[in-house]
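Have a close read of this protein, sequence plus structure tokens, and explain what the tokens say about the fold. Thanks in advance:
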Amino acid sequence: MAWYSVRCLLRTDGAEGLFEERITLWEADSLKSAVERAEHDAGEYAPGVGMRYLGLAQAYELPNDPADGAEVSQPGIRAVPVLWPSGREKETAHHGKAEEVLR
């Protein structure tokens, strides 16, 4: 068994189109199992907060068991923040800062 963090993307159904990144921890036999459990959880959680799960999950196997101050997401250093590399993102410059815009 290993520990995994899984990030699922949710969106409101309203005109405002707000997003939530739900990050949950799972102890599982495999990354696939952790993702399946997280997606099930996201599907049950989303309607209760007026959102829907978009079917996009990213998972990371923790190098150690969770502990105080443990890193729980994929480490990475980027010049531009990329949250969801699905091909639907567009990066634009705004006053010298990069921002991600979902179409």
